[in-house]
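Input (structure):
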């Protein structure tokens, strides 16, 4: 059965940094889905303008991963 780990916290708390170590090593998780990364891909110079679209893409990716 698929598992979903949610890492939350305030901006700048180190969620993304910790995720790259915590998820693969401690939780044996092979996928990391982050709306900020989607936003940077959509609008590299102003990712905040793509936050809603990035969140939608993130949800689509999570749904895809659960269906695999």
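Output (sequence):
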């Amino acid at each position: 059965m698929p598992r979903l780990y949610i890492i939350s916290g305030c901006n700048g708390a180190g969620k993304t940094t910790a995720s790259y170590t915590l998820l693969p090593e401690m939780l044996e998780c092979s996928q990391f889905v982050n709306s900020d990364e989607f936003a940077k891909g959509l609008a590299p110079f102003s990712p905040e303008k793509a936050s809603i679209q990035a969140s939608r893409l993130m949800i689509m990716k999570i749904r895809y991963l659960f269906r695999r």
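Notes: Residues 15-67 form one domain. The chain has three helices and no strands.
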